[in-house]
């Protein structure tokens, strides 16, 4: 996932109470003097961290534009504390909202990758409920995976995985991106059902740009089409990348991400 060397400028906040407290690592880029624009907020994917290619490129773009930027590692990821196996969408959403709350920002742009796209959609709903929260000016969702536990994982479970969930509380799956297997817990799956967003009309109240690879084997591009169907009230742009995979980290993919963010700025 990452090496053990903390990135320069790392800051931390404590999220949770009593025995559930965890130290969440953040990297915050201040805005340039005299620049008053939205803060770019990176929400990473499952088992990804804030030093990944797309996260770093988003931060670099913020630097070019003079904008502030926020990146964080969810608990159990990267430089943050907490156990990965305790991770759930609700838990990682709580940490993301706590990090956003540290910003003195009037407006933010959420950039969510894979699972981070799900967390972004949940976050915008929560932020809209708080008058003191920053306004979400726009969202860029990269290979978004809303409801992936119920829509993508559960339907594909075999007898061995179901037995492992029942007996051990988790099952393991080979990862294409790490020598360590992916671990999906019963808590993650059960909590995912409580955080589903593809259950009716999603009203983000802001423009949404979705970037989706058509060769994505982790989140099929038809999942992005389903998401668009649930966003009838918003200004939505869907860019399908015919030869793009799940990561969308090639130079041409990064340029698409940069262009989408700049269009919202």
Structure in words:
- This protein is of the alpha/beta class and 265 residues long.
- 33% of the residues lie in helices and 22% in strands.
- The chain has eight helices and ten strands.
- It has an eight-stranded mixed β-sheet with strand order 1-2-4-3-5-6-9-10, sandwiched between helices. A two-stranded antiparallel ribbon has the order 7-8.
- Helix 3 links the parallel strand 5 and strand 6 (135-142).
- Helix 1 crosses helix 8.
- The protein is globular and about 60 Å long.
- The two termini are 30 Å apart.
- The mean pLDDT is 95.
Question: Tags for this entry?
Answer:
8-stranded mixed β-sheet, 265 residues, 22% strand, 8 helices, globular, 10 strands, alpha/beta, two-stranded antiparallel sheet
Please provide the ordered H/E string of secondary-structure elements. Answer: EEEHEHEHEHHEEHEHEH
The overall strand count is: 10
Low-confidence stretches: none
Q: Strand fraction band?
A: 15-25%
Distance N to C terminus = 30 Å
Indicate the topology.
Blueprint (H helix, E strand, L loop, with lengths): L9 E6 L6 E8 L9 E5 L9 H13 L3 E4 L16 H13 L5 E7 L1 H14 L6 E8 L5 H6 L5 H10 L1 E4 L8 E4 H9 L13 E6 L7 H9 L6 E6 L9 H14 L1
Parallel strand pairs: 3-4, 3-5, 5-6, 6-9, 9-10
Antiparallel strand pairs: 1-2, 2-4, 7-8
Question: TL;DR?
Answer:
The chain is an alpha/beta fold. The protein has 8 helices and 10 strands. The strands form 2 sheets. An 8-stranded mixed β-sheet has the order 1-2-4-3-5-6-9-10, with helices on both faces. Strands 7-8 form a two-stranded antiparallel sheet.
């Amino acid at each position: 996932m990452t090496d053990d060397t903390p990135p320069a400028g790392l800051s931390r906040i404590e999220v949770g109470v009593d025995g559930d407290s965890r130290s969440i690592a953040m990297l915050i880029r201040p805005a340039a003097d005299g620049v008053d624009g939205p803060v770019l907020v990176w929400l990473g994917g499952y088992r990804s961290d804030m030093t990944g290619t797309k996260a770093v490129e988003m931060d670099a773009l913020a630097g070019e534009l003079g904008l502030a930027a926020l990146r964080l590692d969810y608990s159990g990821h990267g430089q943050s504390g907490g156990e990965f196996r305790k991770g759930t969408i609700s838990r990682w959403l709580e940490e993301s909202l706590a990090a956003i709350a540290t910003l003195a920002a009037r407006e933010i742009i959420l950039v969510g990758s894979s699972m981070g796209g799900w967390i972004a959609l949940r976050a915008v709903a929560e932020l809209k409920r708080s008058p003191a929260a920053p306004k979400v000016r726009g969202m860029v969702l990269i290979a978004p995976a809303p409801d992936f536990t119920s829509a993508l994982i559960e339907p594909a479970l075999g007898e061995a995985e179901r037995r492992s969930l029942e007996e051990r509380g988790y099952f393991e799956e080979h990862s294409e991106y790490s020598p360590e297997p992916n671990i999906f817990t019963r808590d993650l799956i059960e909590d995912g059902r409580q955080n589903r967003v593809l259950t009716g009309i999603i009203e983000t109240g802001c423009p949404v740009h979705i970037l989706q690879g058509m060769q994505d084997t982790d989140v099929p591009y038809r999942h992005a089409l389903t998401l668009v169907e649930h966003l009838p009230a918003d200004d939505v742009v869907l860019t399908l990348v015919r030869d793009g995979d799940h990561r969308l980290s090639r130079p041409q993919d990064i340029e698409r991400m940069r262009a989408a963010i700049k269009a919202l700025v």
